[in-house]
Amino acid sequence: MMLLSEVLKERTAKSHREIEKCEGLRNLLSPDLTLAEYLLILQCWKSFLGPIERAMNSMEEMAGLMDDLATRKKIPWLDADIQNGGLGAKRVVPDSKMALSTPAVFWGYLYVIEGSTLGARVITKKLVQHGTIPKTCLNFYFGYREQAYPKWAIFKQALDAWGEQHPDKYEEVVEAAMDAFDSLRKVIDSNYSKENLEQVIAGVNPS
């Protein structure tokens, strides 16, 4: 039987390719990226991740699934970057309706979230190279820094160990991962707009 991580990689490949087509994410690689555009993308990530992280923190059943779960929080990085970018507490993008209901959903969501820290390394390299975004706003995309691959290895080991104990849950995990990819894409596509960008600009540069 294939490892759960291998099944996820194979079954979510199309969803992964689709998320990379999002205009907002593609613009992160552009040398013309503005700080306002960047902050709007961070708000989209916060919209997606906020409900998930809160659920992970509040549900004892979820908190016990990974020993180092407390070290994998992304919202503090996002809050710091948004604050350092001058936007403060202003919310342009409301929270998504992501719901964490079962351990299988936990693993599916976390597969997408933790996997994003690897792809972020490519984005970070471009952001630093282009120099349009202050480094004080790059905490989220710097992520685990040199610990990115070790942290991914630890995650995969825990994921596969859980999968070996619950082979009947493979499909539920895959569906959750695909739902996470789809939900993130929808959050970005529906909120990366001229109207929201104007709100960000107004928040960074109040009259």
Description:
It is a single chain. The chain has 207 residues and is mainly alpha-helical. 68% of the residues lie in helices and 0% in strands. The chain is built from eleven helices and no strands. The protein has helices at 4-11, 13-19, 23-27, 35-58, 60-63, 75-84, 103-130, 139-142, 148-165, 170-191, 194-204. Helix 4 runs antiparallel to helix 6 (75-84) and helix 4 (35-58) crosses helix 11 (194-204). It starts with a helix and ends with a helix. The model has no long low-confidence stretch (mean pLDDT 93).
CA-atom Rg in angstroms: 17 Å
Kindly report the average pLDDT value: 93
Number of helices: 11
The low-pLDDT segments are: none
Share of β-strand residues: under 5%
Helix content: 55-70%
Main sheet overview: none
Principal-axes shape call: globular
H/E element string?
Answer: HHHHHHHHHHH
How does the helix and strand content classify structurally?
mainly alpha
Counted beta strands: 0
